[in-house]
Design a protein that fits this description.
- The protein is built from 11 helices and no strands.
- The chain is mainly α.
- The protein has 2 domains: 13-55, no CATH class; 64-274, Orthogonal Bundle (MetI-like fold), CATH 1.10.3720.
- α7 crosses α9 (191-225).
Length: 275
């Protein structure tokens, strides 16, 4: 082989080809089992109702009365997400602090005492249960308990996101710089003091950044929860779709896309400012 050909050859191409083929071998049975058949979308039986449905979207409905309704439901969607995330933080912060090993005084000697270790496992198990149940399932439960409306969405987001935030908060705190926290505990400081003066300052930016990201996700989730009666823009979209009013659906989808884009920009700006 010439020197020029040796320079052009990728030394890792055989490994890449092998793993690509291995991925295809693994994914193909999964796609077959899932009955993944995207070509069905292009059949005449599917294209005709799809085009008819999309044709009803235009022109969007833009009369002032309807736009006022959409603005009110959009604001309600943001309120559901924000209130749900606030309650989730009230759940997540205590559980994260209880599950963080570095704040355990008994762990300074090496192995944690039995009681704190059991409590840590119980708290982590609770967080697993909370985040394992999707917010959509929680919303279905609460719709039957408290009835239709935003309360169901707020509680659903609070429980699922409480488990998510608690887990990630604990991982961020444990992966950060812990020398100052350990030093404070060894010199007689309490757990709360060690957290506020040792652990929090080194992790505040990352904790805040993740919280802002989760707020952005909660806004998307609150719209989806509306389809099961949890209020907000999603419930209004569901009502319009059931009435086959494509013009209203188009307007609300455009507003929701604009809301998500605005939230994304705000989230990026906040993370940049905190970083």
């Amino acid at each position: 082989m010439s020197a020029s050909a040796a320079r052009l050859r990728d030394p890792a191409w055989t490994g890449r080809v092998f793993w690509l083929l291995a991925a295809c071998v693994v994914l193909w049975p999964l796609l077959v089992l899932a009955e993944f058949k995207p070509w069905i979308l292009l059949t005449p039986e599917s294209l005709k109702p799809t085009l008819r449905f999309l044709a009803d979207f235009f022109p969007p409905r833009v009369d002032p009365e309807f736009l006022l309704l959409v603005a009110r439901e959009t604001w309600r969607t943001v309120a559901i997400a924000t209130a749900g995330l606030a309650l989730a933080m009230l759940i997540a912060i205590p559980m994260a602090l209880l599950s963080v090993r570095v704040l355990s005084v008994s762990a300074l000697a090496g192995r944690m005492a039995p009681m704190p270790a059991v409590m840590r496992l119980v708290v982590r198990a609770v967080m697993v249960v909370l985040r394992s149940v999707p917010e959509l399932i929680w919303a279905l439960v609460f719709v039957r308990v408290v009835g239709l409306g935003p309360t169901s969405g707020v509680l659903a987001i609070a429980l699922t996101y409480g488990g998510m935030l608690g887990k990630v908060y604990a991982e961020i705190l444990e992966s950060g710089e812990t020398h100052a926290t350990t030093a404070l505990l060894r010199n007689g400081a309490g757990r709360v003091q060690a957290f506020f003066y040792g652990l929090l300052p080194t992790s505040a930016a990352e904790l805040t950044s993740y919280t802002v990201y989760r707020w952005e996700c909660a806004i998307r989730s609150s719209a989806v929860l509306g389809f099961v009666g949890a209020g907000g823009l999603g419930q209004q979209i569901d009502s319009s779709m059931k009435m086959f009013n494509g013009a209203e659906v188009c307007t609300m989808l455009l507003v929701f896309v604009a809301l998500v884009a605005l939230t994304d920009r705000l989230s990026a700006w906040l993370r940049k400012a905190l970083g």
